[in-house]
Amino acid sequence: MISLNSIAPSSSAEEHSRLPLQDGSRIGVIGGGPAGSFFSYFCLAMAKRTGLEVAIDMYEPRDFSRPAPHGCNMCGGIVSESLVQTLAAEGIEIPPTVVQRGIDSYVLHMDVGTVRIDTPLQEKRIAAIHRGLGPRSLTEAKWGSFDGFLQDLAIERGVNVIHERVTEVEWNDDRPLITTKEGSSASYDLLVFAMGVNTATLKFSDRLGLNYTLPRTVKTAIFEYYLGEDTIEKIIGSSMHVFLLNLPRLEFAAIIPKGDYVTVCMMGDDIDKELVELFLNSPEVTACLPPELIADKSSCRCSPRMNIESTCRPFADRILFIGDCGVTRLYKDGIGAAYRTGKTAATAAVFQGVSAESFERHFWPVCKSIRADNSYGKIAFFFTRAVQGLRFARRTLLKMIVREQRNGKNGQDLSRAMWDIFTGSAPYKEVFLRSLHPAAVGRICINLAGSLFPFRHHKGGS
Ligand SMILES: Cc1cc2nc3c(=O)[nH]c(=O)nc-3n(C[C@H](O)[C@H](O)[C@H](O)COP(=O)(O)OP(=O)(O)OC[C@H]3O[C@@H](n4cnc5c(N)ncnc54)[C@H](O)[C@@H]3O)c2cc1C
C-alpha cells in the first residue's frame, strides 16, 4: 500500500504556486481502465476524508458489460499476487464472480523439457480474470468484467462516467479543455490522461504544448480459445503455461486458463502473423492445446500495443499521465502499475495541489522508481533471451528447476526468480539482487559447467 505519511499538506506560503484543489474543483479523467478507475476511486475517497468537495467526470467509450471488442481492454488477465494482496489491504476484494481461476503454479515449456513450478507460498493468490465480459464468441456470461468491477467501485464513490470518446484537448485560458466525438466539451481544474497506449488520442496531447513524449510500444498478440471448464481442468489445470522457445523476436509467451476459455499471449519485438504461426504450431504448444483448436481462425484475437519504454515527465500544471500512457512496469503487472501511479497521483492532487511542481515532488518519484526497476527487468529479460538462444543453458535451467522442485521448499532460488519474473509478483530489482547471492551464482556456474556434457533428463520431466 502507498503511505500517506510523507505527503502532509505544505505551508500556506506555497499555497498559490501549488494550485490546490478547492471545493467545487472539477477533474476530467480520459479513460476508464484500471488507471482511470483507481485514480478516481482514491481521489474521491481522500477528498471526502479531508472534507473537500470535488467532482470527477470519467470519459470511457467502452461498455464493460458487453463481450469483446466493445468491452475489452486487451490483456493476459493476470492480477499479480502482490496486487491481489495490496487491494485486499485497501479493503478491495476482487469478487469470485470476477476471478475465473486462482493460479497455483506455472509450467515452464522449453524444447529440452517441461517442468512444473508451484507457487512459493502454495496458495492460489494470482487471479485470472477477463478485462471485459469475455471473448467475442461468449454465449453465456458466467463471470463479470474486471474493469467493470473497478469502474463500479469508482462509481460508488461518486464518479460521473460519460460514455464518450475524447477527440480533442486544448487550453482554454489556463484550464485544459476537452471535446468528445459526440460533441460535448468541458474544461477542468485537472485533466488526467489514463487512456493507455492503444488509442490515437494520445497524439492530441501535442496540442497542449507539453514536454511529453509518447511511450515506446511494441505489437503483441492475444487469442482466446473456448475449451469449456472441464476440459481446461483436465488438460491445463490451474497452471499458467509459460514458453521459453528459441523463436526469433519472441520474448516469451503464455497460456492462461480462465473459466471456459484459455488466453494465449505472445510478447516480443512486434509479433507478426509468421511468428504467431511458428509459435502456435510448435510441438510445445500443440502438446498443450488440441490442434483443431489452434487451427480455428474464428477465435477472438487482437494485437494490442504494449508500453516498453515509459515516458519522461508525465505531468505539467493541471495535467497528469497515469497507467500505460505514463509510466508502467516492463512486460508484467501493468494493472499493478496502474494502481500505483493512479493512487499516487490522487494523493498528490488532493493533498499537494495540481501544479507541475507538486507532481514533480509527490508523483514523479514513484514513476521514477518504476522506471528504475524496469532497468533491472531489462537485465532479467536479457538473461532469459540468452537462455532461449543457448541449448545448453536451457538444459541447465531445466535441470536446476527440476532438482529444486524435487527438493521441496529449501534453496529454490531459480524457481522463485522465474516465478517472480513470469508473474510480475516482485520488483525486478529484488529478483536481480536475490539471484546475485553468491550461493545462487555458484550453483548456476557449477550446473552450467555440468551441462556442457549430455543431459539425461527425460522430456516431460518433473
Ligand atoms: C498482450 C498483453 C498482455 C498483458 N497482460 C497483462 C497481465 O496479465 N497482467 C497485467 O497486470 N497487465 C497486463 N498487461 C498490461 C495491462 O493491460 C496494462 O498495463 C493496463 O491495462 C493499463 O491500464 P490503463 O488504465 O493505463 O490503460 P488501459 O487498460 O488501456 O485503459 C485505457 C482506457 O482508456 C479508454 N480510452 C482510450 N482512448 C480514449 C479516449 N479518446 N476517450 C476516452 N477513453 C479512452 C479505453 O477505452 C480504455 O478503457 C498486458 C498488456 C498486453 C498488451
Protein model, in words:
This protein has helices at residues 34-49, 81-89, 146-157, 229-235, 273-280, 283-286, 291-295, 334-352, 356-362, 364-389, 391-406, 413-423, 428-435, 438-451; strands spanning 26-30, 55-59, 78-79, 101-103, 105-110, 113-118, 126-128, 160-162, 166-172, 175-180, 185-187, 190-193, 216-219, 221-226, 239-243, 250-257, 261-268, 300-302, 305-309, 315-316, 319-321. With 462 residues, the chain is α+β, with helices and mostly antiparallel strands. It contains 14 helices and 21 strands. Helix 11 (391-406) crosses helix 14 (438-451) and helix 12 runs antiparallel to helix 13.
Topology:
Blueprint: E1 26-30, H1 34-49, E2 55-59, E3 78-79, H2 81-89, E4 101-103, E5 105-110, E6 113-118, E7 126-128, H3 146-157, E8 160-162, E9 166-172, E10 175-180, E11 185-187, E12 190-193, E13 216-219, E14 221-226, H4 229-235, E15 239-243, E16 250-257, E17 261-268, H5 273-280, H6 283-286, H7 291-295, E18 300-302, E19 305-309, E20 315-316, E21 319-321, H8 334-352, H9 356-362, H10 364-389, H11 391-406, H12 413-423, H13 428-435, H14 438-451
Parallel strand pairs: 1-2, 1-12, 2-8, 5-15, 12-21
Antiparallel strand pairs: 3-7, 4-7, 5-6, 9-10, 10-11, 13-19, 14-17, 14-18, 15-16, 16-17, 20-21
Helix pairs in contact: 1-3, 1-8, 10-11, 10-13, 11-14, 12-13
